[in-house]
Amino acid sequence: MAQPSTKPQSSQNLTARYLRVRRQTEALAATLSDADATAQSMEDASPAKWHLAHTTWFFEEFMLAPVFGECVRFHDKFSYLFNSYYDAVGTRHARPMRGLLTRPSLEEVLIYRAHVDTRMADLFEDHPEACELLDLGLAHEQQHQELLLTDILHLFAQNPLRPALKPEVNLQTANLEAAPLTWDRFEGRQVEIGHSAPDFAFDCETPMHEVIVRPFELSSRTVTNREWLAFVNDGGYLDPKFWLSDGYATAQASEWQAPLYWHKSGDAWHTMTLSGRQRLNLEAPVTHISYYEADAYATWAGARLPTEQEWEVAARETDLRGTFAGTGYYQPQVQADVSERYFFGDVWEWTASPFTPYPGFSVADGAVGEYNGKFMSGQMVLRGGSCVTPDAHIRATYRNFFHPDKRWQFSGLRLARDAD
Asked: How far is the CA of 113 from the CAs of 63, 69, 77, 78, in angstroms?
């Protein structure tokens, strides 16, 4: 659930906002074949076709059906096929089996999207008062834009041909050196964090509340591939003294030796990207690491991960700019400007904080109350957005979350330490 916007908008404005997000999702999938869009590479990932349909079902289920009734539905079985986790809505197709949905075809899913888009235009025109969930629906679709890209990368990485979603990308920072890592000090104090403005935010970002932070320091940029390689070469993956117990057990059982998608050919490291297999850019931010790996590296480096409170205090003092999906690179860029403090874009940053409710948090009524609250257990918070996050989707208060062993997202780390 979310904090809805209360500002009235014209039907033309509502339609334009809605279609802008919808067309962007379709553009991301425009070069995929039906086979590309159907395959599922692991349980955590979903087929591109499912993302396209699920985001459409969300509008049909939570905005259209309550107004127009069951007759508005495109297909009587699609609610079962494309519900994700909303128990209050009803039963659903098992998540690990989404890749077996050879039908409906990609073409039919796109027709489904067009059908719902048409009925949403009717809603905007005739029932603008019923659009309080539009902000949530659009933010939800933007989340799935990012998931679609990360899931396609994981799928293509399983293919020995190493296909590319975007085969020709000239990275602007490919030949630059990362800025020297420096430390910024922040004084201890009582501060307020969280979201309170009238504009949109997810419910888990609220309410704004007071916290106490002790004096701390944060690194001026995220850790690079070169710095991570030093950890690899020093035997960091094999030495249990750097690892949490669960992390070390997971790393050994999964035979982790480097970040996800890294592989060595001769003396050179390569990685899989959405532009295909590429030689590892040692100056770019390291990505596709788990919380366990991030915590182990920080310990090895004589530092720690920041808490989400520390991260937010520091990040809100910087401009909200960075490498996001709108650049079209879909890869972390070298953080080269010594005058910048890089808090947004490139890679999601693991924090030391568990994803738990803020003081005063309450779950909304109805099925949409399941959006975030039911996941506040066993997951860790990430901050800042990544190179595949939609540009307008991020803010300093945004709380992403994943289980500590997950690596397929564009996740990296920033170092922190206590200040004297």
From this structure: 14, 18, 15, 12
Both structure tokens of 99: 């890749």
Residue 362: the pLDDT is: 87
Q: Measured over all CA atoms, what is the biggest interatomic distance in the chain, rounded to whole angstroms? A: 66
Contacts of 88 (CB under 8 A, 6+ apart): 366, 367, 370
**What is the rounded distance in angstroms from the CA atom of residue 130 to the CA atom of residue 152?**
34
- The residue ranges of DSSP E strands in 4-86, in sequence order, are none
3-state secondary structure of 273: strand
103 vs 301: CA distance, rounded Å:
50
pLDDT digits (tens, 9 = 90+) for 41-81: 999 999 999 999 999 999 999 999 999 999 999 999 999 99
The SS3 assignment for 370 reads helix
Alpha carbon of residue 145 to chain centroid: 9
Question: In degrees rounded to 5, what are phi and psi of residue 128?
Answer: -60, -25
Output phi, psi for 48, to 5 deg.
-60, -40
| Prediction pTM value | 0.95
Dump the DSSP string for 281-341: -TTSBP-S--HHHHHHHHHHTT-BPPPHHHHHHHHTTS-S-S--GGGS--SPPP---TT--
Query: Are 136 and 259 members of one domain?
Result: no
- Domain coverage including residue 79: 2-157
CATH of the domain at 144: 1.20.120
* Mean pLDDT value of segment 182-206: 93
Q: Do you find a cis peptide bond into 104, omega within 30 degrees of 0?
A: yes
Closest among 303, 270, 292, 309 to 403, alpha carbons compared: 292
Residue 177 within any structural domain of the chain: no
Flag whether pLDDT at 1 surpasses 70: no
